Amino acid sequence: MPSVNLKLLQTFLLAAESGSFRKAAEESNRSPSAVSMQIKDLEEQIGISLFTRTPQRVNLTNEGQVLFEEIGRAMGDVQASLDRLTELAARRKGKIQIACAPTLASSRLGDILATFKLRYPRSVVEVQETPPQAALILLQQQEVEFYIGPEVPNLNEFQFESIIDDPLVACIPEELFNGEKAVRLEDLGQFPLIMLNRKTAVRALVDRLTREAGIELKVQYEVESAQTAVALASSGLGISIVPSIALGAKIDRRIRVAPLDNPNAHRAVGIITARGYVQQRYAEQLIALIRTNLRGEG
């Protein structure tokens, strides 16, 4: 079918629903002759008769009925999409919904949001603490504006803005510390280890590095939270491996922190957004504050 002016289709729907060119003209603020001319133009463009005309009313032909049903469904889909966008716009007005990696949420996000609230007291920020893969679903469904966390491979529908480099570090209890400036992966094999579980991106990175080096580590404890891993290390239960950004400003005096001596033991941390998504003003200001805060802390 050739390209058809949408105004002709709207006129066709009005005429089909009312069964009258005159009523369609009244609803669209046009003359009956103008409506009749538009219907004729539409019939000529698609090459079929859409109505049978009588002095009292107009009736859809079989082909016209098919077109009416198809356009009706299409318009219903368009209206549903517009309703969804209206709902999203209403939810976004003055409110920011974001997702954040647990390591950042517990260590850096509080200060960032406190500063933002001082600058924009009328703003409302809602936070979902979630790992990266779950965050991508939230971004895809436009449930959140952006995600703060580590880079994720194969981000086809999303874009990643790297803000800082986040090295992995070993948190070593005082009684196990021998003044190391850095810790080699192969040296960790002789100690009980406290590791994040296999659902986390950090654990996947550590497993890949040890596999490539042919090293087998003794994992004594598996936990979900980096803060739990650090707390267990502080209690002397073993050495924990966590991302540096998970450590707060105050580090427990019972542990010493040393980077892993491996050029690949790090990850990029930044902002993930859906491609083509237009951020509202408050979201743009919050992203700018996150950049400043993380780079300053780094």
Describe the secondary-structure layout.
Elements: H1 6-18, H2 21-28, H3 32-46, E1 51-53, E2 58-60, H4 62-92, E3 95-100, H5 102-105, H6 109-119, E4 124-129, H7 132-140, E5 146-150, E6 158-173, H8 185-188, E7 193-196, H9 201-213, E8 219-223, H10 226-234, E9 239-243, E10 255-259, E11 266-274, H11 281-297
Parallel strand pairs: 3-4, 3-5, 7-8, 7-9
Antiparallel strand pairs: 1-2, 5-11, 6-9, 6-10, 6-11
Helix pairs in contact: 1-2, 1-3, 1-4, 2-3, 6-11
Characterization of the model:
By secondary structure, the chain is of the alpha/beta class. The protein has three domains: 85 residues, Winged helix-like DNA-binding domain superfamily/Winged helix DNA-binding domain (Arc Repressor Mutant, subunit A); 98 residues, Periplasmic binding protein-like II (D-Maltodextrin-Binding Protein, domain 2, 3-Layer(aba) Sandwich); 103 residues, D-Maltodextrin-Binding Protein, domain 2, CATH 3.40.190.10. Helix content is 45%, strand content 22%. The chain has eleven helices and eleven strands. The strands form two sheets. Strands 3, 4, 5, 6, 7, 8, 9, 10 and 11 form a nine-stranded mixed sheet that branches. Strands 1-2 form a two-stranded antiparallel sheet. A hairpin with a 4-residue loop joins strand 1 and strand 2. 29% of the residues are buried. The model has no long low-confidence stretch (mean pLDDT 87).
Q: Brief overview, please?
A:
The protein has eleven helices and eleven strands. It is α/β, with parallel strands linked by helices and 298 residues long. Helix 1 (6-18) crosses helix 2, helix 1 crosses helix 3 (32-46) and helix 1 crosses helix 4 (62-92).
